[in-house]
Amino acid sequence: MYQQVDRVRHDGGMSKQPKYQQVADALRRDIDSGTYEPGARLPSESDLMARFDASRNTVRSGLNVLVSQGLISSSQGLGYAVRKHEVFELNASRFENLTFPQNGDAYSTDVTNAGRRPHQTFRVELTTAPEYVAQRLKVDAGSRTVLRFCHRFVDDVPWSTQATHYPEWLIEQAPRLTEPGDIAEGTTRYLTSLGIEQVGYADEIATRMPTPEEARLLDIAPGVPVLLWTRTGYSTEKPIRCTITTLRGDLNRMNYEIGDLSARDENESQ
Amino acid sequence: MYQQVDRVRHDGGMSKQPKYQQVADALRRDIDSGTYEPGARLPSESDLMARFDASRNTVRSGLNVLVSQGLISSSQGLGYAVRKHEVFELNASRFENLTFPQNGDAYSTDVTNAGRRPHQTFRVELTTAPEYVAQRLKVDAGSRTVLRFCHRFVDDVPWSTQATHYPEWLIEQAPRLTEPGDIAEGTTRYLTSLGIEQVGYADEIATRMPTPEEARLLDIAPGVPVLLWTRTGYSTEKPIRCTITTLRGDLNRMNYEIGDLSARDENESQ
DNA sequence: TTGCTCAACTTGTTGGTACAAGCTCAGCTT
DNA sequence: AAGCTGAGCTTGTACCAACAAGTTGAGCAA
Questions:
Q1: What's the pLDDT tens digit per position in B102-132?
Q2: Does one domain contain both B127 and B185?
Q3: Residues 139-198 of A with CB under 8 A from B
């Protein structure tokens, strides 16, 4: 009742790759070679079915490979398009950061300097520390922390989320940490003014595919990973904060500058 | 001839999510809640078809979502299993690194200390600098560089690749750079001994999905991104090297330590 | 001119079938 | 005992059909 039409190779007998892979590879080559430029539309599924003599499902499998690799995106009614990447540089180790580390101000300034429009929403909570945070703050698992959460946008595009946890014992000395709303001068400056100075920090950087929650908050397209940046800040005596920043991988690059870079900076022609 | 059997909601009328998403979400919940532990096998596609009253295509779509997110993996004949993650820590900013930055030695030592068995293949080439590298080395696009390429394994699992480019002008002063085979004392120590000292470096960290080439070299499973680490080293006068390390995102985490961390290190009980 | 409707495109979802190919193990053969 | 073979499980590839839903633009109506 269902004839399995001729599965023999038509291509000279050399290929062992499945057809959907051939579709993906061919399209990838076209994109790499500039046939389809970033932002350009790809042929429709129907066109590709004709070009590759394949069924719609097979063509879609091939396209799906490229979507999962973040090379193209699709939208219903519009078609497939080559993704264009725009990267924002994040300076993670400027000296200023030790004294005034990533106050919301530094973020706004950076973005504005790049000619873009920053925007953020803000929230304060009293929560129990997740295992991951408790370890880094050296407090008991399940103990309470102040969570200051920030959701950041650039030109209304979701860019990153930032969750900073402060240990409970800090609240007595720094009650304004629990105040809802921004602390104008920056929390770290506020802490410094109280004699709690951050003298060092440890950064951890990892990457993975986003959770559905993260994908929702950051409006992350299929095939785009997140960059996870954890900064634990220390006074001379104890850990005083743990900041977890979740960045869209397609939009951000982190920079660290260590040692003497005068050779790089002396003629910034590029 | 083809009756579209009853597309009405059976689920109380509340859901608007497509069925394959429901499958993905349900399985994700099961995994998060520990019903299926890391390494455990998931029910077969047939089982899931029964459980969700869905066609094989639909079930596969749902599973495919989780595969693309790196949460599960599949192998033909064996079934689907929950991925387990094992992370290796990479210290990117230890003070020693400024004087003796990532010689193969540091890598081998780190791995051996972790009780693992390191292994690497090595290659030297004279190539034209890619645009990306040429910019960082401040040489003309298309000019030649020495490429020292390293493919690293831990317990025979592909772990990372490292490509270090040296500008052509360095060869005269440091001819051994073109020697095939490892330079025992480490290239940076070798350069230092010639009076070419690396006094600072700039690191850039980005993430994306691997190219097919990278996926092949590092044996990267679907749904796993790569971590791209570029280190440009400077003497007091010029850039002297540019190292691009490609790391499997599921196996690596990078660490930077800046400032005074005595408070962290004084009781390393955890 | 303005605004609406609808046809004609696009991708998204879901159902089905058939066969290929990898893995395991029981059970037979040697 | 050792080794082979094949049944029966698994996922992988490829095809077909139907309808849902988002987008665009031509063309008609106010």
A1: 454 667 777 888 888 888 898 999 999 999 9
A2: yes
A3: 198
